[in-house]
Amino acid sequence: MLAGTGLRSLIPLLVCGVMAATASCGGSTDEQGGESLELETKWHDRISEAVNAKPDGCKAGVGGACETHAAAVHAITERLHEEVEARPDKDRYQATLDGTTAINEQYDQYFTELCATVPETTVDAATTQKFNTCSGLYTSIITGASDLQNNLRPSE
Q: Who wins on pLDDT, 39 or 17?
C-alpha cells in the first residue's frame, strides 16, 4: 500500500524504470519520420503488454495488486501523452491526447480514493460504495488504455 502524495509521483517512474529493461517504456530508436503509423507502431504493443500484465492478485479492481497494475498502465499512457505533446503535429492526435488525459484523471482519482486499501469483501454501505467506485475507476483505466490502441493514428 502506498500512502501520501509524495509516493504517487514516484510510481510511474519506478514502473517505467523496471519496464524499460523489457523495452516497454521510454523512447524508441526507430526513426520513422512523419509516417502516419509511427505512434501505432511504437505504442500499440507497449499498451497491450501493460494492459495484459494484470497480476494474479488483482481480481476486482481494488487492492495493492490492482493499484500496481493501474500504475503500470498509467505510466505507459503518460509517456505516450508526453511524446504526442512534444510533436509538432500534435493537433492531428487529439483522440490520443483525449484518451491519455482521461486515463490520467481516472488514475488520479483511483489513487486519491486509496483504492489499494479497499477490501474485496464489503460489510457496509460505505465500503461497498467505495469498492464500486474503485472497481469502476480501475475498469475505466484498463478499458481506456485498450481503447487507446485504436486511437494512435492521426486524424486527416
A: 39
Query: CA–CA separation, 34 vs 89, rounded Å?
Result: 9
Q: Is the dihedral of CA 7, 11, 12, 18 positive or negative?
A: positive
Categorize the per-residue pLDDT at 2 as very low, low, confident or very high, splitting at 50, 70 and 90: very low
Cα–Cα nearest to 9, from 107, 80, 106: 107
Calculated CA dihedral for residues 67, 70, 72, 73, nearest 10 degrees? 180
Record the cell numbers describing residue 117, joined without a space: 486499501
Residue reference for cell 505512434: 39
Distance CA 41, CA 43 (A): 6
- For residues 137 and 85, what is the distance between their CA atoms, to the nearest angstrom? 25
CB 75 within 8 A of CB 144: no
Pick the range with the lowest mean pLDDT from 27-36, 46-55, 66-75, 97-106: 27-36
